[in-house]
């Protein structure tokens, strides 16, 4: 069993497709171990995406991630990290395989509907960034 962090980003929350996205996870063997809807501050977003701070898109990304509410989840299941990445599809929705969350719901390479941890090590860090142990069931 693995746990991974998933974020339904502001574009998808604004589109009212939270339930449709969660259905992709539940229908593919992932269960929600923790969930909350919050609005990040720009500082929260900057801390969360710190690894990208030198990238040209960093400032826009932090503005976008704090532009509206997000839904943050801990997903649990066998190979949860890789399974979530597979369900999400490529970063750029134009390159995402048909039937993936980003192919179906993303707007652009920036407003791309979902975040998912890219390794087990990062999943642990990202989960600890957003959730206290007692919130993960
Ligand atoms: N991003 C962007 N422009 C780019 C690449 C990435 O705005 O050229 C944003 C996008 O929202 C992406 C996030 O930065 O999801 C993190 O990028 P990463 O390469 O880690 O992609 P991911 O792991 O989310 O697929």
TrEMBL record:
Its cofactor is Mg(2+). GO terms for molecular function: nucleoside diphosphate kinase activity. It is an enzyme of class 2 (transferase). It catalyses: a 2'-deoxyribonucleoside 5'-diphosphate + ATP = a 2'-deoxyribonucleoside 5'-triphosphate + ADP; a ribonucleoside 5'-diphosphate + ATP = a ribonucleoside 5'-triphosphate + ADP. Keywords: ATP-binding, Cytoplasm, Kinase, Magnesium, Metal-binding, Nucleotide metabolism, Nucleotide-binding, Phosphoprotein, Transferase. Belongs to the NDK family. Major role in the synthesis of nucleoside triphosphates other than ATP. The ATP gamma phosphate is transferred to the NDP beta phosphate via a ping-pong mechanism, using a phosphorylated active-site intermediate. Homotetramer. This is Nucleoside diphosphate kinase. It comes from Caminibacter mediatlanticus TB-2. The gene is ndk.
